[in-house]
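FYI - complex with FE2/S2 (inorganic) cluster, inputs then prediction.
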Amino acid sequence: LDGTGRPAGSVGFDAAGAGPPPRDPAPLGLLAELTYRCPLHCTYCSNPVELSAYRDELTTADWRRVLDEAGDLGVLQLHLSGGEPMLRPDLVDLVAHARALGLYTNLVTSGIPLSEARLAALAGAGLDHLQLSIQDAEPAAADEVAGLRAHDRKLAVARQARAHGLPLTVNVVLHRGNVGRLLAIAELAAGLGADRLELAHTQFYGWGLRNRAALMPTPEQVAIAQRDAETARAWYGDALELVYVAADYHADRPKPCMSGWGARQLVVAPNGDALPCLAAAQLPDLGIENVRSRRLGDIWYSSASFNRFRGTGWMPDPCRSCALREVDFGGCRCQAYQITGDPAATDPACGLSPHHEWLTRITAAAGTAAAAPVPRRMA
Ligand code: SF4
Ligand code: FES
């Protein structure tokens, strides 16, 4: 909490009443989506479905300037992501540049392609942390989701990362096809020497939304997964930090998406679009700005897009009068838009939303989809 009793970074543009003006928020983290190209075809990918619109990627000089501006803005953590960031030939250079600016660097990768020499170069450039995605504990099922033979290569990357002394998070997206193997996944991560295991139920954006019917776990599966996550926590204790990201379609309170809009984090897409969250490009009339034509700090503080849902002043009822409005920030704007068509609506994941029943109907129908999921590809 900051000095006003508000969660730090959630200072509002809803200022009602007297008192000093709220302190301007500064972002803690930048998610740099270096490219949407990727050799994998995961059906749950949260990248936009229209990937071909992002072929005109920022240059190395552009990204170095963006990192400079992020440092000036107060950003402390840089998450290098995609698509597959390893496909950028300048990745080692960008890591070294970020470290020289004093940024904490986290590489979010599928591990394909990642040679041991490149891993050594990244470690030598000062990479602070590696987050490696794994699709499943069962190799054939993992390769089927990835759309190529990747599983064994990923395990090799994990072992090499530990050999180079890199802190390692294993990230696994949970869906109907793998959620029953949660304990085997935890065993695999522990055996690889991971420091941290992130078990995240599919977030239904982009390709994940397109494939929602095929990926949605049943309520019974979610209940078992929650129990299994607690079991794994008890098994490994402090030896493996376990982060469990809930299935919010199955919940009755929404996630505090991005820790609030324009409050803690920002995203720069491969084409330079500066976004308040990774799925915001779909929102109508947002007025998205691009780092090629405006400084990151100006966009963060002054753009229409970052101010649109900042604070609590934009909220409708029931959020407006809810005691939790500065805890979950009304949930996710993108999910509200996807389900209701209105990005300013209360997230239907909230049990107090007038649209909550729509999610209940979707989860009740889980397991009945006949169609196979569509593999992600960059047309
Ligand atoms: Fe959160 Fe709004 Fe639901 Fe209250 S009504 S719990 S603020 S989403
Ligand atoms: Fe856009 Fe949640 S993903 S606000």
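The pocket of FE2/S2 (inorganic) cluster (ligand 2) is lined by residues 205, 257-258, 277-280, 332-334 (CB under 6 Å). The radius of gyration is 20 Å.
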